[in-house]
Specification:
By secondary structure, this protein is α/β, with parallel strands linked by helices. The protein is 40% helix and 17% strand. Helix 10 packs across helix 11. It starts with a helix and ends in an 8-residue tail after the last helix.
Length: 830
């Protein structure tokens, strides 16, 4: 065995023992000092010799270092040993086979071939992919509990990251303890016994140092007395209280002081996410062991240039420091590195997805019929705004190309996205392709169907469609050179009506199909789908988006949202889509007057609503948000509906809408409200999406402090949709000064994008901004509110993508491997 091979074996044993300096008799320093010259003689490469000299094995002080220092130093030696093996493998390959080395299809090498710097070696991958039950103390039953936290392997446990830290690093002598502060003392146990603490048994201990003694008690834990032997050294961390004039620790964290690094006390102590049946001390013990034994096996995948430019630590160090940091600065450095990793991998993935969609297979270049487009625009009762014209130009430029459009269209409620989508669908139809428009609710789908048919009736003649219900299928002639058929496909249709529509769509007899999720059911097949439009796209995950896209051969895709998203965030979450923004409202649309009211003003608000209804208007009343439970929210809304119907508006027609109602019932209520059969709609936040009720003039929001600015802005957009003035009344229950300041912004600011930026700044991203529904990798550390980090990750990802889009360069193979893990199941990187 060579000196380097023996060194690797010894260091691997040392790692597996938790860096206790007992891998070899006499300690690691004695072994290294004895073997340094032999190891140096084995090395022929001058660069490797220089790096070995920097490691200075002959003068190592391993025995005097802390566990973290030992772990970092061994990780550095492993990196040097990996280089030694690569050089040796390369020399061997050159001697044995001067011809081109064997390469697998797609440029991959066999696992037996040399790994690139930072690439996870097969044996390391096997170790990291072992089930968590290899960790001492994790039984199959415990593994089941960890699985609820998505922890199934050693690798997953390394990435079970702390939510926060408890600072027990402030060590004090007993005489210097301060009441009501978190502190740590190191002392000797003079006495420990089971004691009655109140009406229950617990443990009481007297701990002393050279400055005095202090009492510590643990309620309901009499068994601890057995662990506390007289004269044993102990570390206690926690808040100091006072009882009968004496200082006392109440149920502090504790740790017997042995020849090992502290885990639970005397440091920044990690606080991990837990689930029922898991306890903090257990989880810390398991993560400590896993970090000590396996962190060094994590291959460094981030290119060296990026690490240098950004000042990031190596991955093994970052993982070690995020779990058990030396201090706050080290914890922040590790957090910054690992947050960047998440955003960087996310960006590379969405860039690859966009490239594959647009270049993986050809799209359909569409001819733009300028004459037909002009006739359609001239028939509208309004002119397009400059913003609509700009967006239309961007979409037309996409449709002309032989690569598929993938575009996100953002625009305020009422900014005119539907008319732009209609034009795009008509262009597809004029080219002999079918178009599809998918909306999240039946009412919204019906609204789109009605609006598009209304546009067409102004420039063409409606003709009957044999064998199909006129309520869900309409045919128009005289606009295009061929008849144009528009159909509505929703889940509530009868079985026979659905079957008839399915047949018509499959035969190409429907040019524009408008619907809900019903459009992506397996029974629906398009003859020639050329354009897919998805409205309120954040209500659909990437799976549904892909399902509609796959109904055709790489069709153009336009996704729309009325929810303003700050530009940088949109580029992060929807980086696979080009971005268009309609950033102005049509002329004549009045700003909705917004007023923040206190509970004492509620009766005035009710009187105002009554007057508006008397004038032929309608009103929304939104019930407070109950974040913990949609069921509780529904019950609260039902009670409010009953109270308003009975005590406040007994003479008016009131409807109720909440998330626990069946979809068909929700749609029935919304139709009734939209058609004017109801005066007031009492609702939870489910009313936020898309519905257009022209006669609605008042939006009253109860518990307004519980909603974000963006959501309040969405509510406000539901009223004042015609030329009449709209009003938004924001009533708060217990508004903090911060909440009051936010609601003052609502009174003054009417630009949804400015409010979205402020919302992010003040509250952080809500559920909509998360990645759960989007098909993107989960973000454990990265915050979408951190716009500078988003921008940095995007810039670095785009620069790398331009130079090596397939990550085929040898130095990028570790990154490609890591990307495959982050986007597991994504075809681009599998």
């Amino acid at each position: 065995m060579t000196g380097t091979a023996a060194l690797r074996k010894v260091l691997e044993l040392e790692c597996s023992r938790g860096y206790d300096d007992r891998a070899v008799i006499g300690g690691l320093d004695e072994y290294l000092h004895r073997q340094a010259d032999r190891i140096r003689r084995d090395i022929r490469d001058t660069q490797l010799v220089r790096e070995l000299d920097e490691l200075d094995l002959r003068n190592s002080c391993y025995g005097s270092w802390s566990t973290d220092q030992r772990r970092r130093w061994i990780a550095g030696v492993f990196r040097w040993l990996d280089k030694v093996e690569r050089v040796a493998d390369s020399a061997s390959t050159t001697l044995q086979a001067p011809e081109t080395p064997q390469v697998l299809p797609g440029g991959e090498r066999t696992e037996a071939q040399a790994a690139e710097p930072g690439e996870v070696r097969p044996e390391q991958r096997e170790a990291l992919d072992q089930p968590v039950t290899v960790v001492k103390g994790i039984t199959p039953a415990v593994a089941g509990k960890l699985a609820k936290l998505n922890v199934r392997t050693v690798y997953d446990l390394l990435y079970l990251l702390p939510r926060r830290y408890v600072d027990y690093s402030q060590k004090k002598t007993i005489c210097d303890l301060v009441v009501d502060e978190e502190q740590t003392v190191v002392g000797t146990i003079w006495q420990a016994r089971v004691a009655m603490l109140g009406s229950r048994r617990g443990t009481e201990a007297i701990v002393g140092d050279e400055t005095g003694n202090v009492r510590a008690v643990w309620f309901n834990q009499p068994y601890l007395a057995r662990s506390f032997r007289t004269n044993a050294k102990i570390v206690i961390s926690g808040a100091v209280g006072e009882f009968r004039g004496n200082k006392v620790f109440g149920s502090p964290a504790w740790e017997l002081l042995k020849d090992k690094e502290l885990i639970h006390t005397g440091r920044l102590v990690p606080v991990y996410p837990l689930t029922q049946g898991l306890y903090p001390r257990q989880v810390r013990k398991w993560t400590r062991e896993t970090v000590d034994r396996h962190a060094h096996q994590l291959g460094e995948f981030l290119p060296a240039g990026i690490r240098t430019r950004c000042g990031f630590p190596d991955l093994p160090d970052a993982i070690a420091q995020i779990h058990y940091p030396d201090d706050r600065t080290m914890a922040e450095r590790a957090t910054r590195r690992l947050s960047f990793d998440e955003l960087f991998l996310l960006q590379l993935g969405v860039l690859a997805r966009k490239r594959d969609w647009q270049e993986g297979q050809p799209g359909h270049a569409l001819h733009i019929d300028r004459e037909a487009m002009s006739r359609f625009l001239d028939s509208l009762p309004f002119d397009l705004t400059p913003a609509q014209e700009r967006v239309l130009r961007e979409i037309l430029a996409d449709l002309r190309q032989a690569k598929a459009m993938s575009r996100l269209l953002q625009g305020e409620v009422g900014s005119g996205k539907t008319v732009i989508a209609t034009l795009a669908l008509l262009i597809a139809a004029a080219n002999g392709y079918q178009g599809a428009l998918m909306a999240p609710t039946e009412v919204l789908a019906e609204q789109h169907y009605t609006n598009i048919c209304s546009y067409l009736s102004g420039i063409s003649t409606q003709e009957p469609v044999p064998e199909l219900d006129e309520g869900i299928v309409r045919r128009y002639t005289g606009f295009l050179s061929q008849p144009l058929t528009v159909a509505l496909l929703v889940g509530s249709l009868s079985g026979s009506a659905k079957e008839a529509l399915h047949r018509a769509i499959e035969r190409g007899e429907v040019d524009i199909a408008i619907g809900t999720h019903a459009l992506i059911q397996k029974e629906v097949a398009f003859e020639k789908l050329g354009l897919a439009v998805i409205d309120e796209q954040h209500r659909f995950g990437v799976v549904q988006r892909s399902a509609l896209r796959q109904k055709g051969f790489n069709p153009h895709v336009l996704v729309m949202t009325a929810t303003p998203i700050p530009r940088t965030m949109a580029l992060t979450l929807y980086g696979d889509l080009d971005l268009s923004i309609i950033d102005e409202l049509p002329p004549g649309r009045q700003v909705v007057r917004t007023k923040h009211l206190k509970p004492k003003d509620r009766e005035k608000a009710y009187s105002f609503i009554h007057r508006q209804v008397s004038n032929g208007r309608q009103a929304f009343i939104i019930c407070p948000l109950v974040e913990e439970s949609e069921a509780l929210e529904a019950k609260a809304a039902t009670r409010e509906y009953e109270r308003l119907s009975r005590d406040v508006f007994p003479d008016l027609r009131i409807g109720l809408l909440h998330g626990q109602m069946p979809g068909s019932e929700k749609d029935r209520v919304m139709r009734s409200f939209r058609s004017g059969e109801l005066d007031i709609l009492v609702s939870t936040s489910v009313v936020e999406v898309g519905i257009d009720v022209p006669a609605a003039s008042v939006m009253m929001v109860e518990g307004a402090e519980r909603f974000g600015l963006s959501q309040l802005h969405q509510f406000r957009g539901r009223v004042g949709r015609d030329k009449e003035q709209g009003y938004c009344l924001l009533i708060t229950e217990k508004a903090s000064p911060e909440a009051g300041a936010r609601l003052k912004l609502m009174e003054k600011v009417h630009d949804g994008f400015i409010l979205a930026e402020k919302d992010l700044e003040l509250r952080g991203p809500g559920d909509f901004f998360g990645t759960h529904q989007s098909g993107l990798p989960d973000l454990k550390l990265a915050k979408l509110t951190d716009l500078s980090s988003l921008e940095l990750a995007r810039e670095e990802a785009m620069a790398l993508f331009r130079s090596d889009p397939d990550l085929r360069k040898p130095e990028h193979r570790p990154l490609r491997q890591r990307l495959g893990r982050a986007w597991s199941g994504a075809a681009e990187w599998s």
